[in-house]
Model the fold of this input.
Amino acid sequence: MPDDATTTSSDWLGRFFASYYERRPVNATFIGVHDHDSRLPDLSREGVQSTVDEMRSLLASVPKAGLEPASADPIDCRVAEGFLRIQIWEYESRHLLRNPSVHAGEAVFGMMSLLLSDFAPLERRLESLSARMEALPDFFAQARLHCHAAPPGWTRRAIRECEGGLAFLDYIVSQRSDELSNAAPSSLPGAAKLAAEAFGEFRHFLEADVGERDDAGVACGAEAFELYLSEGHFLDRDASEIVAYAREELDRATTWLADSASEYGLEHPDDAVERLADLGPDVEGYYRRYEDVWHNVRELSEERDLVTWPDFPIRYAPRPEWARAAAPSLYFLFYRSPPAFGGPAIHDYLVTPIDESMNWHARRAPSRIGRIAAVDCSARIAMFCGATMAEGWACYATDLVAEAGGLTPLEQYAEYRGRVRMCARAIVDVELHHGRMTLEQAAAFYVATAGMNSAAAEAEAVKNSMFP
Done:
């Protein structure tokens, strides 16, 4: 083990990243590191123990702060240290690994991640896709070792993800895309059929063999929650302070929306969304509208000197055909951030298709952790600390545009309704993981407080429970 008095932060971070990418190959693909594109994570009992041992070794050798000139590296080491502490808890507590949705999502996006970006010739990416498909039977065999019992909400989500995976594989097997068919290696059809069998068997296992666990099983507990706050967000507030602040802000936002509705010609705050829906473009102008709004906001930003706007074009493109049947069952983001490394010259922002019937600055940050932490992966961002380092920008930017006059009054009012949802989410997060709220109660709280429909409320509560 290196002596932490002589190991530089840069050297230690090199070891940390090498371990991160090797142990999390699907995340590596999303991030833009392609040395492990043909592999899936080793989640056998031996593989999990080896990963935990390696994380403990890294944790024990973190360089001491203050030994080097000012740079981002010592800060990155501290952030990485927090990541390791959280990940060790997630692995050893089995909060992560006993969740069948984690395994199903990793399997689906292990495949899809290879098609979301043109980081290499299609032929090479399809060879990696074939290899990952062939690895799926062993991967799901490992998953079954961890998933004897799970909360029903987690299992239902995993079943939907299996259906999404099967829809994607059906597209591959049926060879409906000439582009994919012409570039596919000879092994791909057989690998896709093998993968479909593996997904079908795992879905049957979830439906028939996974026992139901009490809702209390979703809570991470007060001690772990404090770990997330202190080692992921680096906050000195405790959970009780956060939930008190969120309840205060929820009351403030709800009261303002109710009292102000008549000023915007509304009988009820919920009417704002319905009114805005009437202002949408027709089918012919649908795709162009995205571009028009983007250019209008950029002109406003430059005119008012609001933010530094990077020269990084975005193309608003319809969701690829290979993803359309699968996407509704998955964590398939239309705004998925580009890879941290080797990203495209033009980033595709995948919008919902229609017919007649971004983290650019983070990629160039001095912080090596900051470049990768908020990249969207199979079920969440690459590192928990990314929530502190990058999340929230979209809310800030929208508020800034509103202050500069870039939104209509009705749009500003409707956007403020989002604050109600954010406050509700913070309350659910604390109460659920401290055992003071069940999943059913969390979903009901979203319906009553944030105006969600029952399906959206359950999905939100389940995701909160999976990732404190």
Notes: Confidence is low (pLDDT under 50) at residues 1-5. The chain is about 60% helix and 5% strand. The longest strand covers residues 314-318.
